[in-house]
Amino acid sequence: MQKDLKHYRKSYEKGELTEADLPANPFILFQSWFDMADENDHIDEANAMHLSTVGVNGMPKTRVVLLKSYSRDGFIFFSNYHSEKGIQLDENPQCCLSFFWPALEKQVIIQGKVSKIAEAESTAYFKSRPKGSQLGAHASAQSSVIGSRAILENRLAKLEEEYKNLEIPKPTNWGGYIVKPINMEFWQGRRNRLHDRILYSKNNDNWKIERLAP
Ligand SMILES: Cc1cc2nc3c(=O)[nH]c(=O)nc-3n(C[C@H](O)[C@H](O)[C@H](O)COP(=O)(O)O)c2cc1C
């Protein structure tokens, strides 16, 4: 099977990122881009981001997770601490996050250091989740091999019964991670492949700003 996609071509013309637009702090720019994505009717789940991790075997893995909050402290997502990403992050607590919002022709790439958030904060978020998601977190040993879907559904049915009238506790191996950026790149598609790329790199309490060739 072979499909040739070489003729797929698009001119990016929806925006520009000039030096005059750049705040000293990249979180300000992130916020304005994120709000644009969030308000755009053609973008579903503006908070879906790619998370890339590399464990001790050196083989990178990327998957989508949902950004659940951000502040100048960093970017927070939730997951199973014993999942493949959890193991890789234990081995090497650094990652790359990336967002691509095609309707805006914008990409943001963030490299940073990762740590677990406070247990109390994870518990508070867990409690705010719908009961089905809470039970799902208990039912699924994320990233482990399972014999069939039926095993998972039976496990969920049992848990539904067990916790019928009870508060569901947060699994001890489930919680949030915070990514504290060491750099953030903002990419805006432009005509003739002369895209705008602006790199913010953390420099003590300040951010160095540089333009990269597209
Ligand atoms: C739109 C979307 C959102 C997702 N959000 C999350 C999330 O917030 N947390 C999570 O652990 N997995 C999420 N997943 C599932 C992950 O992509 C992945 O399958 C899972 O975390 C297991 O990854 P791992 O085996 O590399 O650890 C999401 C998947 C998609 C497509």
UniProtKB/TrEMBL annotation:
**What does the record give as the function of this protein?**
Catalyzes the oxidation of either pyridoxine 5'-phosphate (PNP) or pyridoxamine 5'-phosphate (PMP) into pyridoxal 5'-phosphate (PLP).
HAMAP family recorded for this chain? PdxH (MF_01629)
Q: What does the record give under GO molecular function?
A: FMN binding; pyridoxamine phosphate oxidase activity
UniProt EC number: 1.4.3.5
> Where is substrate bound in this sequence?
R9, K10, S11, Y12, K68, Y125, R129, S133, R193, L194, H195
The Gene Ontology biological process annotation of the record reads: pyridoxine biosynthetic process
Assembly information from the UniProt record? Homodimer.
Q: Binding of FMN: at which residues? A: R63, V64, V65, L66, L67, K68, F78, S79, K85, Q107, Q142, S143, W187, R197
Which InterPro entries does this UniProt record tie to the protein? Answer: Pyridox_Oxase (IPR000659), Pyridox_Oxase_CS (IPR019740), Pyridox_Oxase_N (IPR011576), Pyridoxamine_oxidase_dimer_C (IPR019576), Split_barrel_FMN-bd (IPR012349)
Pinpoint the Pyridoxamine 5'-phosphate oxidase N-terminal domain residues. 43-159
Q: Metal-binding: present as a keyword of the record?
A: no
What is the name of the protein in this document? Pyridoxine/pyridoxamine 5'-phosphate oxidase
Keywords assigned by UniProt? Flavoprotein, FMN, Oxidoreductase, Pyridoxine biosynthesis
Task: Give the family per the record.
Answer: Belongs to the pyridoxamine 5'-phosphate oxidase family.
Q: Name the catalysed reactions.
A: pyridoxine 5'-phosphate + O2 = pyridoxal 5'-phosphate + H2O2; pyridoxamine 5'-phosphate + O2 + H2O = pyridoxal 5'-phosphate + H2O2 + NH4(+)
Name the encoding gene, please: pdxH
Q: Where is the Pyridoxine 5'-phosphate oxidase dimerisation C-terminal domain?
A: 174-214
Cofactor: binding comment = Binds 1 FMN per subunit.
Q: Which cofactor does it need?
A: FMN
Q: Species lineage, top-down?
A: Bacteria, Pseudomonadati, Bacteroidota, Flavobacteriia, Flavobacteriales
